[in-house]
Amino acid sequence: MGEDKQGVRLTDEQRIDWLRLIRSQNVGPRTFRALVNHFGGARAALEALPSLARRGGAGAAMQVCARADAEREIAAAQKLGVTFVALGEPAYPLRLQMIEDAPPLIAIRGQAPVLALPMVAIVGSRNASGAGTKFTQRIARELGEAGFAIVSGLARGIDAAAHRASLQTGTIAVLAGGHDRVYPIEHADLLDEIMAAGAALSEMPLGWEPRGRDFPRRNRLISGLSLGVVIVEAARRSGSLITARFALEQGREVFAVPGSPLDPRAEGTNGLIKQGATPVTETADIVSVLQPILEGKKLPAREPEPQPAEGESRDGAEPAPDERSRIVALLGPAPLLIDDLVRLSQSSPAVVRMVLLELEIAGRLERHGGGLVSLV
After folding, report:
1. Peptide bond preceding 184 in cis form (omega within 30 of 0)
2. What is the residue-averaged pLDDT of the chain?
3. Who wins on pLDDT, 289 or 367?
4. Among the ranges given (22-31, 217-226, 245-254, 307-316), the one the predictor scored with the smallest mean pLDDT
5. Separation between Cα atoms, residue 61 and residue 58, nearest integer Å
6. What distances in angstroms separate CA 23 from CA 19, 92, 202, 357, 361, one per listed residue?
7. Are 163 and 256 members of one domain?
8. Cα 270–chain centre separation
9. How many CA atoms lie within 13 Å of 165's alpha carbon, on the beta-carbon side?
10. Residue 173 lies in a domain
């Protein structure tokens, strides 16, 4: 049931440059892609960062990740058995590669072949009920027997139950922090058990202690890896509902296990069903929806942008000073479509992209997805 993959491999030098770029200040996955596309490679983008930040109005010097820091992280990762896989390389999970903000590099530990299996995410309440835990174990075990790998976030409750029930068939833990900063700490032993037939994955640096904002960021990877996401129990303001939202945005299937209207842990899942999520009372409810997708090799609608060859710039648009000020003046705290910004500024799309890149590197721009941007 694995999916065919093709791709090229980075050289060791390119991998260092990619790691330096994504670890530099104000560079996230979308910005990384824009920089590499514009400058033709990570090395040229790194050299351009200080100038971009100045032109974007940064108040302080740009913090560019030093080569020595990147080399130290790679060496420390190797000691832990962690490898960095780049977007577009054969070992990079195909469905994750298709999301709009796919990490340029993911750090992987464990059995890499499990990442080629079709995956289903199972997430839910940390404060899980006994019935919810038992049902999670059943569907995780049966999905594993049907050839699916189980993805979850290593959290207490439903996540841990899903991992434990699929240890033999393959499970993937997506971490909110670095590989050496397991959260919660009591699941370090569970993570070690996962390594036998499964894997752990993170986009965060080694040594990174997960903070509140890192969990939603992790959740987009949980859904991005998967054909579909199963929510077993979720209160009204559960983080699992954030995962469901990401799944919808990424074109993934959303499944929800119905629960008693009297149980607050069922409020979120029952709400998802009202909104059109597929109700799940047995594993066949999931498999019957996902099997046609697998047989048709259906991937998300978005195709990844072709990357220019190393050293080859995609466009050389440099905004004139009056253009830059005109574009910046049109931006504000309210999100604006980039297409509207191009139309209102009467500048070329390439020039607008360049100004947005400058603002982003300077820490003055926020991207909201769906082509919306605003000033910080």
Report:
1. yes
2. 91
3. 289
4. 307-316
5. 7
6. 6, 19, 14, 16, 12
7. yes
8. 26
9. 24
10. yes
